[in-house]
Amino acid sequence: MSATRTYEDVLLALAEADERVLVVTAENRAAIRNLPPKLGGRFIDVGICEQTMIGMSAGLALRGRVPVVHALATFLTLRAYEFIRDDVGIAKLPVKLVGYVPGFLSDGNGPTHQAVDDIAVMRAIPGMHIVCPADGAELVDALPAIVASPAPTYVRCNVRPSALVHTPFVLGKAETLTPGNDVAVLAAGLLVPSAVEACTALAAEGIGARLVNLRTLSPVDEAAILDAARTCRVLVTVEDHLLVGGIYSIVAEVLVRNRVSVPVVPMGLDGRYFKPARLPDVLECEGFSVGKLTERFRRALAEHGSKRPVAATPSRAAASTTNGKRKPDGYPDIAASDALYARAVGLIPSATQTLAKGVGQHVRGVAPKFLQSGQGARVVDVDGNEYLDLTMAVGPLVLGYREPAVDAAIAAQLAQGITFSLPHPLEVEVAELVREVVPGAENVRFGKNGCDVTTAAVRLARAFTGRDKVLCCGYHGWHDWYIGVTDRDRGVPKDVAALTYTVPYNDLAAVADAIDDQTACVILEPVTFEQPKDGFLAGLKKLCAERGVLLIFDEMWTGFRLALGGAQERFGVTADLACFSKAVANGMPISLLTGRADVMKLLEKDVFFFSTFGGETLSLAAARATLGELRDRQVPAALERLGTQLRDQLNQLTESAGVPFVRCVGYGCRTLVTFAAQGLAAGADPLVMKSFVQQELIKRGFLWAGFHNLSAAHTADDVKALLAAYAEVLPLLRTALEQKKLAESLRGAPVEAVFRRTTNFNVKPKPAVAATPGKDGNGART
Ligand SMILES: Cc1ncc(COP(=O)(O)O)c(C=O)c1O
Q1: What is the DSSP string of 11-63?
Q2: φ, ψ (nearest 5 deg) of residue 586
Q3: CB atoms < 10 A from the CB of 111, how many?
Q4: Which of 221, 360, 488, 716 is 20 to 30 A from 550 via CA?
Q5: Which range in 304-308, 402-406, 469-473 is most confidently predicted, on average pLDDT?
């Protein structure tokens, strides 16, 4: 991606953009020799006093700086180990350690300067990230993420050029450089280019050799390792490192922890150092030249792989979104989906557990009805069709499917047990973590679904205020207190429904009018797609405080997305209680009730909120890992950037395609496409327009239900591909409207509105004119 930019170009650009970045060295200037005049006082060369660099950098990091420290890998990882461990590692400071000439790159240095144990020692420091670029381009691509991460990081510096074309760098994610299911080669760093050439040579012989460039060894992409183990005959690890503590050890640990059995052939330095010489000679002599690697991989397969059948699972290496079964007209074949649906009908009412995932939200006959697997931002349906997922399980998958760090945390906890007879330490740990990142979270309790905690919050508010009425704005779950106020209210006693009223968003005067001396709380999503105006949230807080009413934020969608601390952090307004779920644990079921200690104290005795699975540990382990990843990788900021770009470029496209009545709205992390019956679309049904766009996007490999629920796994290239698809689909929409053939262009029944009316239920005070049915094409809530 960044072949023309050098390491020092990118470092300079990062330093210019962020004055916290400092460059530190002890006369090791090989890759940074042009920086001193440009960085001035932010280039610190300590001369021969290498020892001072680590402690000094830790001190600078404590004062908010981000030091990027350059030294020989041997010095950094061995001589300075104790300083790194004590000053940087234990304090988890964002010091970036760039180790020159690690592994075989220390070709002329003699054994005493060989850093062939550096991964082992750095891995011993909890929380230390380890990045091993395969070439200069990958290093350059990785640098912004490394500098942006708050984690201490060790970089095995490798500025060598290569012909490889990489996918964008994501910390903790491997990339697959060559496909195949016979032998899987797991490598990182300097040896990757030769290993790719060897795999390519084997492919010419008909041997499928999958090259997995692990890229980061801590955190390592466990899912990629496990996928290789489950789908290939034999694994080979390739490293310019001792077999102890490096890639071989890491892979072995992952396999043992997950109880996966597969032959593994290690290729590295087996209990000895290498003979110093020129790099090409070292590679030849140690068996890592292209020719030697080709022969060694072939032998590994012959000796260890013949007895193991290749798994039937399709490789998930393909980045294409159009593979799988397609009918001749290009729409996916969904025969297996339809067959499963036929079995579900009459057995599972609605044939779904989540309304937004059901057939009513997807064009019948076109959209898949059942998904089988997911990886990153991609899903595969039961017919084998792959899609880029823009729904992401209706919110939870903020990091993406099979996120290695989260899956590893779940697997590690699974090995210890799932649900226990007494509380588990994770309950305390996760509560502490939540208190750290969520404003106002003086107390924390756990539930399973969003509606558990919105319901607990409402009950608490009623108990605390001694009042019964609830004002709400938005969707809050299926329980009586809320759903009774909508038009899907059968089974809810009228007396319960009569206690809840809806109020309009951004209308402080209306809320003030609606509050009376029986109002217990105002519960609302702090923001959905419309921005809060004129200090609405702060005004609401003041109003509630003045009238003795509790303010509850329903942060199911905003939590951990809009900012790490959700809408409360983003808008600087803290509610009395705040409820979270969805993104907390990247797909595991858990919800959080947080808020004022004096209110939450009622949960000690007076207010009952207990459940069998509230302390289930797989979800808690997933929550701990997810929150750590969201924080370390600064995911909310990345979602904001990518999503804003998508929204703005899509709006330009709708203008240029002549369909300006199609708009993309919302904050970057979650945007919505709206369809208004205006202009050319006057008289058209917005739900039919939405269905048409869905149908055509599905044909092009995008699973779309009107929203862009972005995750950390969505890349700039994904957004580019999606915009390219919109650029094809929007003119088709225009033509269908012009020719008045929209409805007949649909290949199946259109999507439905979730509620016949979506707002203005039981409004307080009563409106003068009855509300009209909402049919805005804005789709499902849950
Ligand atoms: C804003 C909001 N609140 C509450 C809920 C209810 O959450 P759950 O479906 O997990 O009970 C949802 C579900 O989509 C939601 O979007």
Answers
A1: HHHHHHH-TTEEEEESS--TTTTTHHHHHGGGEEE-TT-HHHHHHHHHHHHHT
A2: 50, 40
A3: 12
A4: 488
A5: 469-473
Three-class SS string for 268-331?
EECCCCCCCCCHHHHHHHHCCCHHHHHHHHHHHHHHHHCCCCCCCCCCCCCCCCCCCCECCCCC
Non-local CB neighbours of 432 within 8 Å, separated by 6+ positions: none
CA-to-CA distance for 2 and 392, rounded, in angstroms? 30
* Ligand 1 center–CA 618 separation, angstroms: 21
CB distance 592 to ligand 1 below 6 Å: no
DSSP reduced 3-state for 472? strand
Separation of CA 559 and ligand 1 centre (Å): 12
Contacts of 300 (CB under 8 A, 6+ apart): 183, 234, 236, 265
Provide the total of helices (H) and of strands (E) in the chain, helices listed first.
Answer: 27, 26
* pTM exceeds 0.85 for this model: no
Do residues 279 and 249 touch, judged by C-beta distance below 8 A?
no
pLDDT tens, position by position, 321-355: 344 567 778 899 999 999 999 999 999 999 999 99
- d(C-alpha 572, C-alpha 541), whole Å: 11
* For ligand 1, atom 3: residue with the closest CA: 476
**Ligand 1 atom having least distance to the Cα of 555:** 1
H or E element, residue 185: strand 183-187
C-beta of 709 in contact with ligand 1 (< 6 A): no
Task: Write the DSSP symbol of residue 384.
Answer: S
Ligand 1 pocket residue status of 477, Cβ below 6 Å? yes
- Average pLDDT, stretch 515-522? 97
Atom of ligand 1 lying closest to residue 451 CA: 11
Report, as an integer, the average pLDDT of 147-163.
95
- Please give the Cα distance from 730 to 706 (Å, whole number): 14
The C-alpha angle with vertex 425 and arms to 421 and 430, in degrees rounded to 5, equals 120
Ligand 1 pocket, mutate which of 482, 582, 591 (most atoms under 8 A from CB):
582
530 token code pair = 């419309």
Q: Alpha helix (H) ranges present in 572-616?
A: 597-600
Three-state SS sequence of 727-753:
HHHHHHHHHHHHCCCHHHHCCCCCCCC
Residue 782: which pLDDT band, with cuts at 50, 70 and 90? low
Q: Is 541 in the pocket of ligand 1 (CB under 6 A)?
A: no
Which amino acid would we find at residue 40?
G
pLDDT at 374 over 50: yes
Q: Give the amino acid at 696.
A: E
Tell me, using a 6 A CB cutoff, whether residue 581 lines ligand 1.
yes
% of the chain residues with pLDDT over 70: 93
Question: How many other β-carbons are positioned within 10 Å of the β-carbon of residue 417?
Answer: 11
Q: Which atom of ligand 1 is nearest to the CA of 448?
A: 10
Task: Classify residue 747 by burial, with Cβ atoms within 10 Å: 0-12, 13-18, 19+.
Answer: middle
Query: Residue 362: its pLDDT value, please?
Result: 96
Ligand 1 pocket, 556 CB below 6 A? yes
CA of 552 to the centre of ligand 1 (A): 14
Q: Is the CB of 557 under 6 A from ligand 1?
A: yes
Across the beta sheet with 175-178, the strand order is 175-178, 209-213, 183-187, 234-242, 264-269
Q: How far is ligand 1, taken at its centre, from the CA of residue 451, in Å? A: 6
Task: Please state, as a whole number, how many other Cβ atoms lie within 10 Å of the Cβ of residue 390.
Answer: 23
- How remote is the CA of residue 476 from the centroid of ligand 1, in Å? 5
Q: What are phi and psi of 379, to 5 degrees?
A: -130, 155
Give the closest residue to 711 by CA, choosing from 320, 401, 386, 438: 401
**For residue 2, what pLDDT is reported?**
40
Alpha-carbon distance of 373 to 445, in angstroms, equals 31
Assign residue 587 a region (left: φ > 0; alpha: ψ between -120 and 50; beta: otherwise): left
621 touches ligand 1 (CB under 6 Å): no
